[in-house]
Amino acid sequence: MTDSEKLDLILNKVGGLEGRFDKLEERFDKLEERVCHLENDIRDIRLILENEIRTNIQRVAEGHLDLSRNLHEVMKPNNEIEMLAVKVSMLETDVRELKRKIS
Predict the structure, then answer these.
(1) Does residue 41 have a pLDDT over 80?
(2) What is the pLDDT of residue 45?
(3) What Å distances lie between residue 21 and 17, 24, 27, 35, 95, CA to CA?
(4) Mean pLDDT over residues 18-36, rounded?
(5) In the chain, what is the straight-line distance between the N-terminal and C-terminal CA atoms, in Å?
């Protein structure tokens, strides 16, 4: 193999490498563009999380707290009624015993 043949072979291989590098540059450019789009999407998602979802969750939590308070307020008289029913039952038993003793 002569020197010129060797140089031609080297030039052919270098030309092939240049084509491959060009393809790699294209792929990296596309990848960089996709990463930029992903960053924008992530930023949008974060804004939605901060501005909408968090505030909505807070509102739901506050509403739940109010409902819980209301339930406890409603249950107070119910507890008192149950205690009064127990006391009335005890008093009825006492009255029956007194009537039985009197009779």
Answers:
(1) yes
(2) 94
(3) 6, 5, 10, 21, 104
(4) 93
(5) 139
